Amino acid sequence: MMKYKVVLFDADDTLFDFKKSETHAFMKTMTEYEEVYDESIHLKAYHDINTRIWKEFEMGEITQKELKVERFRRLREALGMSFHPEEFAKRYMHHLSYASFVYPDAERLMEELKGKFKMAIITNGLTQVQTRRIRNAPLAKYFQDVIISEEIGVSKPSPQIFVHALEKLGHADAGNVLMIGDSLTSDIKGGEDFGMDTCWFNPEGKENRTAVNPTYEVRTLMDILDIL
Q: What residue numbers bound the domain in which 108 lies?
């Protein structure tokens, strides 16, 4: 008998190649403002700022609404440019919403799992971006629901997002739910705090320097089949 009845997945950097989406969208936006685009300068600056600001969001120090524009305000200062952060944010999110890239193994994994489990995606993303990139992507057909944090006003690692997800799936027992994601601080900590088993997707073999203890750790998506 299978241990798990419900499998919850993070989206970006777990099933979807967000780095590729981000690189594509950022390059398109920057070249609308800057004649010479240098990925090693411009993208690196944005990536550093964006990583920091999403951590602030996880800690409850900034809202998603503020985050959308504030990251580009900081970028403008860091690069000494003169664009309007609100306008830049709007253009970037437009390009990002059209940049949906799925990891090669993601569909193979879903084909193996379909019909065997209730499945949902939980993403800490922005509604405008994630609806087109994820909810309307071909991969979405495998999931009973796609839950977007901005839409419901709560995000991982808050237990409320998992309460919401299980209610939507009509499932009450956290003991037979597996949460799979790449982020120790949002996916794995959130699942752990909620009483679910967790699987850390860690393709680069990063060292876990946190107090969070995933139930499982995998290097490839297909390794998940060994757990399930």
A: 6-16+102-227
Which listed residue (10, 17, 182, 187) is catalytic? 10
End-to-end CA distance of the chain: 11
Do 84 and 125 fall into the same domain?
no
Q: Enter the pTM of the model.
A: 0.88
Which residue of the set 12, 17, 182, 187 is catalytic? 12
Domain boundary among 81, 97, 113: 97
**Could you confirm whether 10 is annotated as catalytic?**
yes
- Cα–Cα distance measured from residue 112 to residue 178, given in angstroms and rounded to the nearest whole number: 16
pLDDT in tens, 98-141: 999 999 999 999 999 999 999 999 998 888 899 999 988 989 99
Looking at the domain assignment, is residue 87 inside a domain? yes
Number of Cα atoms under 13 Å in the Cβ half of residue 93 = 19
Told to judge if 12 belongs to the known catalytic residues of this protein, a careful annotator would answer yes
Instruction: Return the H-helix or E-strand segment holding 8.
Output: strand 6-9
